[in-house]
Structures are given as structure tokens and as C-alpha cells.
Design brief:
By secondary structure, the protein is mainly beta. The protein contains one helix and 14 strands; from the N terminus they run E-E-E-E-E-E-E-H-E-E-E-E-E-E-E. A four-stranded antiparallel sheet has the order 4-3-6-7, with no helix packed on it. A four-stranded antiparallel sheet has the order 8-9-12-11, with no helix packed on it. The longest helix is centred in the middle third of the chain and has 6 residues. It starts with 31 loop residues before the first strand and ends in a 13-residue tail after the last strand.
């Protein structure tokens, strides 16, 4: 199992001068962020694109090569309609000429197809008697979820709803965080009623991008069963 951390990075900091290019400070933040407002159909979407609030300057955006200037509001944001895949570029014109700051690529996806691409994986990590502790994580089409499918306990794009088993008890123990501080696993304990039964577990979660509940069913002791590995 693994996780993907996708960061838009820019170059090191330079001070401004009349003939100097605009170069963004080297920090682990995105120069631009985007959130989906609505899908318009026929492969088009409306996004809210915002400039990192820690950046200073007078900015505008362009959508696609040679696109017109898109000016920002007081919050340094702009609503942009794109169809298919479009590169959004940031420019600053306080240095006397437009110079590129950074960019990000937006793609309008089929919401239903993206949600159908969500798959799962699990990893037993400790067994004592009839009880097994295991980690559970989600994955999906990288084109739909470039940052992976993040898992949070609540108030996130993926919200845990329930876990159960007809053969025993499943207890949600919390969120598992890697040594790097990346949270993308749920931590469970499954206790069998009888050693000779199956180990079927059902985990239900709400995916807010899909606005629906999804249930994944699997046998904890059969890691090679189909349909639980990462989507092709």
C-alpha cells in the first residue's frame, strides 16, 4: 500500500526589481488552489481558482495557451469554466511586464465514472486469538484523484459510516497516521465469533464527491480476492 502526495511547487524566492522575473518563494504550499463549483455537462465544469494568500502582488490568470486575462476578485480568486483538460497559469504584472508565476492543470471529469473507480485495500497487522487488527485504505483513478482518495474520520471528502460482519464484531479504532504525518488509513479490530467461520467484513463510507454511500465487502483472510486492489 502507498499514498500519493501531490504538491505544486515553484522556484526559490527572488526580490523584485524592474527587470527581474517573478519567481515564487519555495514553500510547501500550492501557488494556486482549485475547488469544483459545479459540473455543467458535456465535459465542462466551473471551478473557483484562488492564489495562495501568502503571495503578494497584482495577479491575473489565463486558462489555456493564449487565453484572455482573467482578473481576480478581492479574495484573489476567480471563477473559471473549463472543458476537458486546461492549464491555468498565474501571472503577476507588478514588475513592469507579465511574468509567469506558476500553473496547475484542471480536468473536468465524469463524476459517476470517478466514483465508480474507487477501490480499496486492507492489511492485517496483528492477530491475537480470534481478533485481528487491520488497516483499510481507498484508492481511485489517478486522473480523478491526483492526490489519492484521502480518508478522514469526519468532516472530510470520505466519511466513515459503519463497519459490520455477520461472523463477528468490527470495531473502528481510529485513523492511522504514517510517520510522515499522512493520514490515509482507517484502523479496525475484527473479532470472530467462531474460528471456523468466514471472515466477511463490510465497511460503509460516504463519498461527498459522489454524494452517496458506498459499501466495500471482503474476506479479511483472503488478500488476493478480486476487486479490492487499485484500479487499472
Amino acid at each position: 500500500m502507498g499514498s500519493t502526495l501531490f504538491i505544486f511547487s515553484c522556484q526559490k524566492e527572488n526580490s523584485y526589481s524592474d527587470n527581474q522575473e517573478f519567481i515564487v518563494e519555495n514553500r510547501d504550499v500550492s501557488c494556486l488552489t482549485a475547488s469544483l463549483i459545479e459540473e455543467l455537462g458535456e465535459g465542462c465544469c466551473r471551478y473557483l481558482v484562488c492564489v495562495d494568500p501568502l503571495l503578494s502582488g497584482q495577479f491575473y490568470l489565463t486558462a489555456g495557451a493564449g487565453g484572455p486575462k482573467i482578473f481576480l476578485d478581492e479574495s484573489n480568486c476567480a471563477e473559471i469554466t473549463i472543458c476537458g483538460t486546461t492549464e491555468i497559469s498565474l501571472y503577476d504584472y507588478t514588475v513592469g511586464k507579465p511574468t509567469l508565476g506558476c500553473s496547475l492543470t484542471l480536468t473536468c471529469h465524469d463524476r459517476e465514472a470517478c466514483c465508480e473507480s474507487i477501490s480499496f485495500d486492507f492489511n492485517p497487522i496483528n492477530t491475537i486469538g480470534l481478533c485481528t487488527e487491520f488497516l483499510f485504505t481507498l484508492d481511485g483513478d489517478e486522473a480523478c484523484f491526483p492526490n489519492g482518495v484521502p480518508i478522514y474520520f469526519q468532516d472530510g471528502p470520505i466519511e466513515f459510516v459503519s463497519a459490520s460482519s455477520p461472523q463477528g464484531e468490527v470495531e473502528f479504532l481510529g485513523v492511522w497516521t504514517t510517520p510522515f504525518g499522512i493520514t490515509n488509513y482507517w484502523y479496525f479490530e475484527f473479532c470472530l465469533d467462531d474460528l471456523y467461520q468466514e471472515n466477511i467484513i463490510e465497511i460503509t463510507f460516504r463519498e461527498f464527491y459522489c454524494d452517496t454511500e458506498i459499501t466495500m465487502s471482503f474476506d479479511l483472510l483472503k488478500p488476493d480476492q478480486p476487486n479490492h486492489r487499485k484500479c487499472d
